[in-house]
Specification:
The protein is of the alpha+beta class and 289 residues long. The protein has one domain. The chain has seven helices and eleven strands. The longest helix is centred in the C-terminal third of the chain and has 74 residues, at 215-288.
Length: 289
Amino acid sequence: MLIANPIYDTVFKHLLENEKVAKFFIGTLLGKTVHSIALRSPEHTYIDQKDKELKLLRMDFTVEIEEKNGQKNKIIIEMQKADKYSADLIRFRKYLGHEYMSDILPITSMYVLGFNLPGLETACLRIGRDYYDLIEEREIAASVNFVESLTHECYIVQTPRITGRLKTPLDRLLSVFEQRNFMDKTEAEKRYDYPISDEGVKEMTEILHYISTNPDARKALDDERYYREYLQETFGDLYAEIDAKTQKILAKENEILAKENEIVAKENEIAANKAEIDELKKKLEKYEG
């Protein structure tokens, strides 16, 4: 089947505006049942004021989900998609900060990236949140509205790392975003030849096939493709240089974080040894006394 590449802004937006697709996409990533979903506001596209490059698409949803214990909760899903350059990650912080100021509902962020993050080899990951008692040194099974409103979970999809696995519903969802089997160098459309067993995947591929083959639906995709080609020809070397520097910064941050974790682990080990020594001293004093 010929389908439009969903990493394009116009195509991604068209997909997620479909309520069935949005429920399937968000519910599959969360691993939870989505009972209702509503687009909070029109999509926002970050526009660079210097070169007018379209870099970042954001769509926000209010979603009612069902937890494993049967409880239903309303949350905000902040969906953000960046195409090619890791420098786009800087934009995410700005938008997330704005969302914290504008609503008290818990926020879950979902990032669909057209590039790889250094040190993260998986196509899809969740960065979670837990409650940990530092006094008793144990995890707590709890959920408090105040805390939920101030912290958030994060899901990241790295489309270049998608390999076409079809074992789970998540695998089959991600297969639609696989960045392979393109029809030409523009990467605007590709062949999707995997067997379809999920209603959500069927809905997605039908929409993508329509965009790829219908002249009216295809026009917006072609306009974006022409614009991308212009930007690549005009600013490609500059963007690649910025991206390389950003990758180095991210790698250095990961290295620093690893060192900090190593220091914390060493401090904990020292504290444990000190406590053990103090306990032995007490026993010795008691014995000698």
